[in-house]
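#structure-requests
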Amino acid sequence: MKRTDLLLKIIAAANGEPLTPAQLQKVAFILGMERPNHIPDDYYKFIKYDYGPFSAQVYRDAEQLEREGKVIISIHPRGGWRQYSATIAGIQSEAQEISDEVSTYIKDKVRWARELSFQELVRAVYRKYPSFRENSVFQG
């Protein structure tokens, strides 16, 4: 399994709805922290950044998935930030080697992240992983 398979699974778990950059980053981070035995050796390395755990490689991989026709990266109409949605081809090409347990876990975490505001999501990650607050500009 490749890390891009897991990233596509995260994006596809939103059922065609877009994920914000924070949702994408935080779900990918939590997956790596809470399911370390189910991720590849080259999985994302997260640094302590402005709003908690961050990996620029997540965005590069999403851009690669877009070039492959599996993801659409669009600009949020009111916020101006990027948002990430799976295409039909992306949903259909999801890796079969992802276990049902991990697939269910990802769907649950994506649902959870989408239910929270940006501030609530960042706070929740800081509560569970306080060391990632170290370089934060977020005071909420």
